[in-house]
Structure formats: C-alpha cells, structure tokens
Design a protein that fits this description.
The protein is an alpha/beta fold. It has 4 helices and 6 strands. Pfam families: rve.
C-alpha cells in the first residue's frame, strides 16, 4: 500500500572544495531522506552540513503531509539513532498516529531498503 511503510536514516557524504587560496578542503554533508517502501521512491529529504534536528524534523513533517492519504496506519522504520529517539520526533509521530519501528542494535533488516539506497547512491558517486 503506498505511503503505509516508510523508512529513514541519515547518511554522511564527503565532498571536496577549495578555499580562497586554492587549498583543497574536505567537507561533509548529511542526507536525511524518507523512502516509501511501496515503490522505493524518496518522498522527501533534507541536506545539512552537520547532523541536524531541524533538517530531520522538516523532512519528517513533509513526509507526514505527503502520507496523509494512506487509509491505513503509517509505519516508519529506522535505526536507534539519536535523532529517532528525540522526544520531539517521537511526539510528532504519536500526534499523527504513525507507528515507530526501530530495529534492534546490529539488525538493519526493517530499514534495509534505506541502507541499500545509500549503498547504491554512494557507489554511483
């Protein structure tokens, strides 16, 4: 069922830039997507320069808005990362009737489509 099961995670990407003197600098960017497990579509995402609560919450709020058409309860699978244990995040899910599913430590089976997405994305870069 579209929009019934989503998965999310945060992934770090390194990129290179130069400063005003032409010196090479390695920087990091963080991607926070929400993937529809029905068809593998990324429903919403945010980029940030550091792991960021605001980016995750903004992507979550947009995902909630997009999935309101689902006649069944929506479930969001994730790992046990700090972002998905925040009171604000958990409350937002509960307030919108969304079930939170978190995999046990060392077990990424529930959100493996997200891990697979990141793996393919990083391979192509």
């Amino acid at each position: 069922m579209p929009h019934q099961k989503l998965t999310t995670d945060t992934s770090e990407f390194k990129y290179y830039t130069t400063d005003s003197n032409g010196k090479l600098i390695i920087k990091k960017a963080y991607l926070d997507p929400f993937l529809n497990m029905y068809n593998g579509e990324i429903l919403t995402f945010r980029f940030s320069e550091r792991p960021d609560t605001q980016a995750i919450m903004a992507a979550l709020e947009e995902a909630i808005e997009i999935t309101k058409d689902c006649p069944y309860r929506t479930t969001i699978h994730s790992d046990q990362g700090w972002a998905y244990q925040m009171k604000r995040y958990v409350k937002k899910l509960k307030d919108n009737g969304i079930y939170q599913s978190m995999s046990r430590k060392g077990n990424c089976l529930d959100y493996s489509p997200m891990e697979n997405y990141f793996g393919i994305m990083k391979l192509k870069m």
